[in-house]
Design brief:
Chain A is built from 18 helices and 24 strands. With 516 residues, chain A is α/β, with parallel strands linked by helices. Chain A folds into three domains: 243 residues, P-loop containing nucleotide triphosphate hydrolases (Rossmann fold); 156 residues, Rossmann fold (3-Layer(aba) Sandwich); 68 residues, no CATH class. In chain B, a hairpin with a 2-residue loop joins β1 and β2. Classes of the chains: A alpha/beta (516), B mainly alpha (315). Chains A and B meet through α3 and β8 of A and α8 of B.
């Protein structure tokens, strides 16, 4: 009996299909009903801002996150992925952004790790076989790395090749086209290395489907056959690079510009450009940034924007003395700031709010009062002795001034909401009354809309009081909304500066073009 | 081998040269054999500890495991307390007991998720308890000529204990370098999550490493028993900490995944040479302990120097 005539023309099911995938975390819907398809032998791009849901989606595809709703289909068949192994059994493998290789093993061992097969007999390694197995993988991608080199002696780009070679071992487990996911593979590569990677991706397409994730638009357009744009946990559009103009893609990624009110633009106090800078950075050089010149005037909010790998986070830490610098100088109010460590920076009136609040910003089990007075012991002590009455007075004043919602000053800070935790962390620099410069590294990360708004208002108030602020914003809108000036960093250098006055804000599109 | 990794070896050479220049007795063949004999038990125990440290775990159980194995072997070979005369079988049983106690530490670690610091301390107490029960107030003296010969007999000028230690180091090195167990121990210390993401079940390898460490302690206990001529509860008293010190001095750091059996053996030799040389150059026995401690601290700081960075959290 012949097949149903329609079966012959029905296209083969996509290698990988996602339908209505939902994943919610407390306070945020990371995935809000994503639909997408990965076809055979194509390079599919995933583009989106930070927080668009890219990483959650990828984790769901390799079994590291279990979705709350929706389904994943592999070659038409619905699957539940419980682990990376499950995903590998279905022919899905991922090259992780923060590389997942064991540095103290050889490249060959990493490539065959967990599936050594004939490379091990009776518990003993057969190095010649291991080498051959690894070489087969490296040959697939045309790599010339020595399989017996220690992995941590390789460059970042070489390690990435080792990871791709490792992921391709999933071919052994599936009889069909494997899916290789590359998560932000270019973020830490040099331009020349990126070109090599692109050749690699085109080569992979010959025998695999590739999912290429990046927030650099030019790359996505350059290497992908098809691009999905993610925003707010949904796939908001599908684009063929051949017919796409970058502007359309930008608009899709960013969405409509948020109202300026959200950032309390009305409370902004314009800073006369003639005012002398409070912070002057000249030629500052560290391991990931070079020759940075930067001025911030008293009362000014300057946002530094840049993609992952731009070096802005380390610059921020360097200004606080938390990472070492190799050249350049920093003046605060005309006086040289010794970058010997956070202690010197604190004493000079510099405050730092780290991005990882729960790890670096606060001591979770300690009380609100102790967290708030951590950096300025003087406000609660007489000599080496803590005076409870003095501490209570200071802490209660700031709790009410910043409207921190807490059962009391003795409550463990870990029990407060994120927004209130962040206010305590900020208050730590305010209690001394001597703060001149605030370094804010993603101060609104993980906060809900209301809490963000309160942090913005507080920043405005501090700026009004003459505090200079250097802001690493969570999003471009935030940077534009809050800043008087935006400084763009790329590959460790300041590339341009864009004035951002109230009423004359640049569009996010203009900035994206400078960043990539 | 990088300069950083060669640091302990260079230190050892320098210390040997200095002692050889200062004390003529130090450089006699007889003294060299003495040093190697004195290092033998610590070398065997450190082999075991090294694998645990490679995991990034810690092992404080040597003292108790060695006590239990020491009394076990003394009571199973020809001895002064009972009629047993099992010879080599007794030695094998003592080593297996050590392995079992080591395996127990590992099982507690992976099943109950209790940190190795606590499980091994607990197992050490259990071992001491077993030893005390076996001791029962009367110290068993070893009569067995074979076992006594381990400490007294010589081959090519070195005691049998020295040769046993050399064999253990060789076996340890082969395991570390050429077996899945050894390579996975390295990998667990270097990046346990990566192994899990590669589909490797890590727990069995951890248990196996602790078991192997226990076997080394058991053998070390047999060697001590041969030296002392009797089964002693205190057989392993100082070895837990000496072994960790030797390993770290040699470059097998507590962070895991770094160093190895040969590194640790250099550490063992360094400690032993110091103890021997300080006596021979005439340092007062009252300050020897202090001087040795200082040199150890400096050596560890030198070994860890390449890993230092600003705001590093050290606990």
């Amino acid at each position: 009996m012949s097949a149903h005539p329609r079966a012959a023309v029905r296209p083969a099911p996509p290698v990988l299909e996602v339908r209505g995938l939902v994943k919610a975390y407390p306070g945020v819907r990371a995935l809000d009903g994503v639909d997408l398809q990965v076809r055979r032998n194509e390079v599919l791009g995933l583009a989106g801002e930070n927080g668009a849901g890219k990483s959650t989606l990828l984790k769901a595809l390799v079994g590291l996150v279990r979705p709350d709703a929706g389904e994943i289909r592999v070659r038409g068949e619905r699957v539940r992925l419980r682990s990376v192994q499950d995903a590998a059994d279905h022919g899905i493998g991922m090259v992780f952004q923060e590389q997942s290789l064991v540095g103290n093993l050889t490249a060959a061992e990493n490539i065959v790790l967990g599936s050594e097969g004939p490379g091990v007999r009776h518990g003993f390694y057969r190095w010649a076989t291991m080498r051959r197995l690894a070489q087969e993988q490296l040959d697939k991608i045309g790599s010339t790395i020595d399989p017996l080199a220690r992995t941590d002696s390789l460059t970042f780009a070489e390690r990435q090749m080792v990871e791709i070679a490792k992921v391709l071992r999933i071919e052994q487990r599936t009889h069909d086209t494997p899916v290789v996911i590359l998560d932000e593979p270019t973020s830490v590569l040099e331009p020349g290395e990126i070109e090599t990677l692109f050749e690699q991706v085109r080569r992979l397409r010959e025998f695999a489907s590739v999912v290429f994730v990046s927030h650099r638009l030019d790359e996505v357009l350059d290497v992908c056959d098809r691009v999905y744009v993610l925003r707010g946990g949904r796939a908001v559009g599908e684009i063929r690079p051949a017919e796409a103009e970058p502007g359309r893609l930008h608009r899709m990624m960013i969405g409509s510009t948020a109202a300026e009110d959200h950032y309390h633009g009305g409370a902004a106090t314009p800073v006369p450009p003639t005012r002398e800078p409070l912070l002057t950075v000249r030629g500052l050089t560290g391991t990931t940034f070079r020759d940075v010149d930067l001025d911030v005037r008293a009362g000014e909010i300057v946002a530094v924007v840049g993609v992952h790998g731009s070096g802005r986070e380390e610059l921020c830490r360097a200004l606080f003395g938390a990472v070492a610098t190799s050249a350049g100088e920093v003046l605060l109010d005309g006086r040289k700031l010794a970058l010997t460590g956070p202690r010197a920076a604190c004493a000079a009136g510099v405050g730092y709010v780290p991005a990882e609040r729960k790890i670096e910003g606060m001591v979770g089990p300690m009380s609100v009062a102790d967290n708030m007075t951590l950096a300025k012991q003087g406000v609660r002590c007489a000599g080496p002795v803590v005076v409870p009455r003095r501490q209570a007075a200071v802490v209660d004043r700031w709790i009410s001034r910043l409207s921190i919602r807490t059962p009391g000053r003795r409550t463990a800070i870990g029990r407060l909401s994120g927004g209130n935790q962040q206010k305590v962390v900020l208050a730590r620099w305010l209690v001394g009354g001597d703060v001149r410069l605030l370094l804010l590294d993603h101060p609104t990360r993980g906060l809900d809309v209301g809490a963000r708004s309160e942090v913005y208002r507080l920043m405005r108030e501090l700026a009004g009081n003459g505090v200079a602020t250097l802001l690493l914003a969570d999003s471009l809108e935030e940077a534009i909304g809050m800043a008087d000036r935006v400084v763009v960093m790329s590959d460790g250098r300041v590339t341009t500066e864009v004035p951002c006055p109230a009423g004359g804000k640049p569009s996010p599109l203009d900035l994206v073009k400078e960043m990539v | 081998m990088s300069v950083g990794a060669a640091g302990p070896l260079i230190t050892l050479v320098v210390v040997v040269v200095v002692f050889a220049a200062l004390a003529p007795q130090f450089r006699t063949p007889g003294n060299i054999a003495n040093i190697l004999d004195a290092a033998a038990v610590l070398a065997v125990v450190t082999c075991g500890t090294t694998f645990v440290l490679l995991l990034g775990s810690i092992d404080l159980s040597a003292a108790g495991v060695m006590a239990a194995s020491s009394l076990t072997v003394a009571l199973l070979v020809e001895n002064t307390r009972n009629g047993a005369d099992h010879g080599l079988l007794g030695i094998v049983v003592a080593v297996l007991l050590g392995a079992a106690l080591g395996g127990l530490s590992g099982l507690l670690l992976v099943l109950l998720r209790v940190p190795s610091f606590m499980t091994t301390l607990g197992v050490s107490a259990v071992g001491l308890g077993i030893a005390t029960l076996l001791f029962a107030g009367v110290q068993p003296g070893v009569v067995d000529a074979g076992l006594r010969g381990w400490a007294t007999g010589r081959f090519l000028g070195f005691t049998h204990l020295t040769w046993i230690a050399a064999a253990c180091v060789l076996v340890g090195w082969v395991v570390q370098r050429h077996t899945r167990l050894g390579r996975y121990a390295m990998a667990i210390g270097g990046g346990e999550e990566v192994l899990a993401l590669s589909g490797v079940r890590v727990a069995p390898y951890k248990v196996a490493v602790f078991t192997m460490a226990g076997a080394f302690y058991g053998l070390g206990a047999v060697m001590v028993t041969s030296q002392l001529g009797s089964g002693v509860v205190q057989a392993g008293a100082d070895y837990s900490f000496s072994a960790i010190t030797a390993a770290v001095v040699g470059g097998t750091l507590l962070v895991g995944g770094r160093g190895g059996v040969l590194h640790s053996t250099v550490g063992v030799l360094l400690l032993t040479v110091l103890a021997n040389g300080l006596v021979l150059v005439g340092v007062s026995p009252y300050v020897q302990g202090g001087v040795q401690g200082l040199i150890v601290v400096v050596a560890v700081a030198a070994a860890a120097a390449p890993l230092r960075h600003r705001n590093q959290v050290v606990k």
